[in-house]
Design brief:
Keywords: NADP, Oxidoreductase. This protein is α/β, with parallel strands linked by helices and 461 residues long. The chain folds into 2 domains: 257 residues, Aldehyde Dehydrogenase, Chain A, domain 1; 188 residues, 3-Layer(aba) Sandwich (Aldehyde Dehydrogenase, Chain A, domain 2). It has 14 helices and 19 strands. The strands form 5 sheets. Strands 11-12-13-10-9-15-16 form a 7-stranded mixed sheet, sandwiched between helices. It starts with a strand and ends with a strand.
């Protein structure tokens, strides 16, 4: 895939970039290694000053960088602005909290004495340069939720971004440099996927994080495993959205629409499978399909647009194949389902009912504004259908029944359970999944500690 900005609303190639050669990659790795040796000695106060400055600059640049993101991957402009604002918020959160999250920990006095020590502590120390392989769907947020904690912990970052968002990737490097981080603390590597292995195997690179597809995650994990290097993976998702009879149905249907089509439906944590108790299925399906059908598909630069184009022509083709397979196997189309006759890679909000296990969409992630509806008879069936997927990123549950809630929290196989609301990431809460959705956590204290050397310091009596 060429490294280029291709406007998905028109299909027009706007700007192309040459991939870095071997000599330049080597130079960048040397710069990162040198930067780490210096950056790791800076104080939390110094890092926080720069991170807060980055947040201020990002706020100033919000409208311009939002237009870049929308041009590169097609999200509605209002969502692009919100993404930039969220990134600034996360930068400020880690600037404020990193020192406390990584403060020395003192074991219980009885355990210290039992170990034969006069004193002991646990200290969080940085690892070194960390490679981040990031996707195009949230081209800024995915990077910042890694970069802010990594830099605040004393690590440095090497970004291999998706090849269709090069301008956003270069902006992030420039932003952090303008904020005062030294040269090499954060670098964007314009390289293809074929060059990732060379960078990851370099001994100066100590760890890697990847958000993306399952095949990409397997590849990075295999290389890192061979090199015995730490990885954090956030891969696909096919999140359930469960609606029980006690739910506030109007509100659940309204939120369901947003939960499915956020970011043009191209989100790992978007609700994709809507599992509805038979007692409220028909009423929910009617409200949900009507809400999906009412969304405006159009130019993502226009404020009133709800759904822009999918990011790539290949992505739309793959989504169409899933829908056609399901319809061919008997699924009912409640709305959408047909590509519009217009330039760009648009696909309408679509709701499919009557899903069965023999349909590909039952097991594969639909990365676009396509929702699947399941009718279930009771709580047990709701849990069984929700867990009948290779993924386990997050989940959404709508109920006011305490017994049902306890059961969902206990038995849903996912990294998150969001009750009477939709899944959303926040700097204070850990984010990540289980099963084929990956491992490790981002955000919160768990995320910042993933790329730390957790060091026991023991002093004899």
């Amino acid at each position: 895939m060429p490294i280029a900005t291709v406007n998905p609303a028109t299909g027009e190639t706007l700007k192309t970039y040459d991939a870095l050669g071997e000599e330049e990659i080597e130079r960048r790795l040397a710069i990162a290694d040198a930067a780490y040796r210096s950056h790791r000695t800076t104080t939390f106060a110094e890092r926080a000053l720069r991170m807060n400055r980055a947040a201020d600059l990002l706020d100033e640049d919000q409208q311009d960088i939002a237009r870049v993101m929308t041009t590169e991957m097609g999200k509605p402009i209002k969502q692009a602005r919100a993404e930039a604002a969220k990134c600034a918020k996360a930068m400020r959160w880690y600037a404020e909290h990193a020192e406390g999250l990584l403060a020395d920990e003192e074991p219980a006095e009885r355990d210290v004495k039992d170990s034969g020590a006069s004193w002991a502590l646990v200290r969080y120390r940085p690892l070194g340069p960390v490679l981040a392989v990031m996707p195009w769907n949230f081209p800024m947020w995915q990077v910042v939720r890694f970069a802010a904690p990594a830099l605040m912990a004393g690590n440095v970052g090497l970004l291999k971004h998706a090849s269709n968002v090069p301008q956003t990737a270069l902006y992030l490097e420039d932003l952090l440099r303008r904020a005062g981080f030294a040269e090499g603390c954060f670098q964007t590597l314009l390289i293809g996927s074929g060059a990732v292995e060379r960078v990851l195997r370099d001994p100066r690179v100590k760890a890697a994080t990847l958000t993306g597809s399952e095949p990409a995650g397997r590849s990075v994990a295999a290389i890192a495993g061979d090199e015995v290097k730490k990885t954090v993976l956030e891969l696909g998702g096919s999140d359930p959205f469960i609606v029980m009879p006690s739910a506030e149905l109007d509100r659940a249907a309204e939120v369901a629409v947003t939960a499915r089509v956020q970011n043009n439906g191209q989100s790992c944590i978007a609700a994709k499978r809507f599992i509805v108790h038979t007692d409220v299925f028909d009423a929910f399906a009617e409200r949900f399909a009507a809400g999906m059908a009412a969304l405006k598909v159009g130019d993502p630069m226009e404020e009133e647009t709800d759904i822009g184009p999918l990011s790539t022509e290949q992505g739309r083709a793959g989504l169409e194949e899933l829908v056609e397979d399901a319809v061919g196997a008997g699924a009912q189309v409640l709305c959408g389902g047909e590509r519009p006759d217009r330039p760009g890679w648009f696909y309408p909000p679509t709701v499919l009912a009557g899903i069965t296990p023999r349909m590909r969409i039952h097991q594969e992630e639909a990365f676009g504004p396509v929702a699947t509806l399941y009718r279930v008879a009771d709580l047990d069936e709701a849990v069984a259908v929700a867990n009948d997927t290779p993924f386990g990123l997050s989940s959404n549950v709508w109920t006011h029944n305490g017994v049902e809630l306890d059961r969902f929290v206990q038995d849903l196989e996912a990294g998150g359970v969001y009750v009477n609301g939709m899944t959303a990431s926040h700097p204070a809460f850990p984010f990540g999944g289980v099963k084929r959705s990956g491992y490790g956590r981002e955000l919160s204290e768990h995320g910042i500690r993933e790329f730390c050397n957790i060091t026991t310091v023991w002093h004899g009596a």
